[in-house]
Design a protein that fits this description.
This protein is mostly helical and 326 residues long. It has 13 helices and 4 strands. The termini are far apart. Bound molecules: benzoyl coenzyme A (BYC).
Length: 326
């Protein structure tokens, strides 16, 4: 018996028995490992999501890297440097995990640099003040944790395991961002205004990080069935709002949404309409910094060519030495 819906890379149908056994494993919470059989569509979905995630970590270094030379104190500079390095590390773990699905890092990088692969919309917004670094840590890393803690239980073993360490580091990042905001919100009037403006700039783009509303999310249903995603986009967005509003109140800052209101029945906040036109515009490449971000990554890639060449020559030499010794 063969499935009607799923076809493999060569366009041939996949045996229903294998598909059923695969889904049974997923339902029983048994992790899928690189050598296990998996439907081609599962493999492709994972490559898409994981590589977008890895690209986001890499491009995500840029808005924060912008402030390393201008951090207000040496201590702040050291912390920010460490955070940006952590993001590079996250990208590398996830690229490595993605490679276990039979795709090369080179191919993934080419897809990013040629605009075929997406990365998170949030990193196409500029960081115009030091408070933006606080807002990113608090809101962007906060949203990332909300999305990624459930991914520690994703069905694909290498992805789930990479998320465990990433989430620990993201939670530290979130706290450093909130601490920056706390200092500013309790500082001079000018600092408080700077913190409020950063919240105004990053609130709505942070909500967009969770992706389109459930009715417009084309991948959610299948990804949730495969436990690649554990919660829907809207559910995670709601959890994030409910967790973040009291944090803003504690800071004495105002969430820039006049329609934000506690709803006793649902035990959560109702919120205003997200500007989905803006979201679509950004993911299509027309956000405020898309061009700048891509140019920076292309330049870094080109300038790093000598390192890749050197690694290849070194590996070839090591191999030769090994062969001669054998
Ligand atoms: N930005 O069917 P949907 C971080 C795309 S790293 C851009 O709901 P899915 C951090 C989506 O790809 C943050 N594109 O998709 C790093 C799809 O397009 P394609 C990244 C988006 O995959 C450094 C289309 O819209 N986190 O936090 O089921 C410093 C339809 O959407 C976005 C991850 O990647 C977006 N915001 O759900 C600090 C986590 N949203 O591929 C922080 C893992 C949607 O069909 N990823 N799209 O062309 C996920 O959980 C899911 O991929 C998403 C989207 C929730 C993001």
């Amino acid at each position: 018996m063969y499935s009607q819906g799923l076809t493999d890379a060569k366009g041939s149908e996949e045996p229903q028995e294998l598909l059923d056994a695969f889904q049974k494993k997923i339902d029983a919470e048994i992790k899928i490992e690189p050598r296990d059989w998996m439907p081609e569509a599962y493999r492709k979905t994972l490559i898409r999501q994981m590589s977008q995630h890895a690209h986001s970590e890499i491009v995500g270094q840029l808005p924060e890297g912008n402030w390393i030379t201008r951090a207000p104190t040496l201590k702040r500079k050291m912390i920010l440097l460490a955070k940006v390095q952590d993001e590079a590390g996250h990208g590398l773990y996830i690229y490595s995990a993605t490679e276990t699905l039979g795709v090369s890092r080179e191919q993934l990088t080419t897809e990013l640099l040629t605009g075929q692969a997406k990365y998170s919309s949030i990193f196409n917004y500029p960081t115009t003040s030091w408070a933006d670094i606080g807002a990113i840590g608090w809101l962007v890393d906060g949203a990332a944790i909300m999305n990624q803690v459930p991914l520690c239980r994703a069905s694909y073993g290498p992805y789930a395991r990479s998320m465990v360490r990433i989430c620990k580091e993201e939670s530290f990042h979130q706290r450093q961002g909130y601490e920056i905001m706390t200092v500013l919100a309790r500082g001079s009037e000018a600092q408080k205004i700077m913190a409020q403006k950063a919240l105004n700039r990053f609130w709505w783009p942070s909500l967009m990080m969770f992706g389109p509303s459930d009715k417009d999310s084309k991948h959610s249903e299948q990804s949730m069935k495969w436990k690649i995603k554990r919660f829907s986009n809207d559910d995670l967005r709601q959890k994030f709002i409910d967790a973040t509003v009291p944090q803003a109140e504690h800071l004495g800052l105002t969430i820039p949404d006049p329609e934000l209101k506690w709803n006793d029945d649902k035990q959560g906040y109702d919120h205003g309409e997200i500007n989905w036109d803006e979201f679509m515009n950004v993911i299509k490449g027309h956000g405020p910094c898309n061009h700048q971000r891509m140019q920076a990554r292309i330049k870094a890639h080109e300038e790093g060519a000598w390192v890749r060449d050197a690694v290849e020559v070194y590996q070839a030499n090591q191999q030769k030495i090994k062969e001669e010794a054998a």
